[in-house]
Design goal:
Number of helices: 11
CATH superfamily of the largest domain: Malate/L-lactate/L-sulpholactate dehydrogenase, NADPH binding domain
Mean pLDDT: 97
Distance between the termini: 19 Å
Largest sheet: 7 strands, mixed
Order of helices and strands: EHHHEEHEHEEEEEHEEEHEHHHEH
Radius of gyration: 20 Å
Low-confidence stretches: none
Length: about 350
Amino acid sequence: MQKVISAQVLRAQCATIFIACGSSAQEAETVANNLVMANLSGHDSHGVGMLPRYVDAVLEGGLTPNAQVQTVLDIGSMLTLNGQRGFGQVVGEQAMVLGVARAKTHGSCIMALADAHHLGRIGHFAEMAVAEGLVSLHFVNVKSRPVVAAWGGTDGRFGTNPCCIGIPLAGRAPFILDFATSRVAQGKMRVAHNQGKEVAPGLLIDERGQPTTQPGVVVVPQAGGLFGALMPFGEHKGYGLAVACELLGGALTGGGTWHQPTNTKRAVVNSMLTILIDPARLGTQSAFEIDALAFVDWLQQSPPAQGFDAVQIAGEPERKARQLRERDGIEIDLITWQEIEAAATRIGVML
């Protein structure tokens, strides 16, 4: 069973909940818009289903409403920032505004953002950069219950550690590559579990390290209070990229890495290393624009395989999903909606 809600109504309901958590109206609107945009983009894993966890994190003290990004070090083209456990959707945007301005001034910027609460869909920050004509690279780690197994391991040792690359394309919609380094996002397992669905083989191992198709092994405690784990994508190659995200996004930013026993805290803490490049200042703008378009055209001239309408590039599926869901509404499974209603009730809001 599914509940269909318009994006406009969903934004308003989410904002009301965040205001009850202590957020300013502006912060509540920013976070609500970001979550609903994730749903509109087809990424329900990063959408309003995260709201109950945010409410729990506020109540536990792991998420601080109205926190602002703090500048720790500023040497022009390099910035070290701290999110002070504020809403990642807010402090992440604040950090990107600073980084984009520096890249415009200096031609590039390396920005380290530590200790933000859940940043949400990292593609949003790449979209901010490409809108200004910049190339962006993002490496993110996750400090929360570890849900991804090391290649060759049998239990969770790190988070879904997203990697994202944004590349502007002259006169066209940009290339936005945004993916978890696990085979599937943790939030997608929550959605599947709430819908009572099994998942494809090869995505998960259970609490004993054995393959399973039951998403609940990474959502609710199993025998002995243990959890299963997601597998890294691309075998040893994806695992290597996940480790790089932990070392760059966690260690290099100063946000820290995960190396402790599992706990039950609900906060999700992200740190992110961002690299911003201005092609105009690099001196390759003209060649970049011509060759990028030539290559994309070359790709999309490929005859589509059986089951495909056309060859797409990263970012296209999300843009198509936004048009459809903005028109038709957003589907939310009833279990997820009940979790949202329960979270609202905990802070005195009736939906």
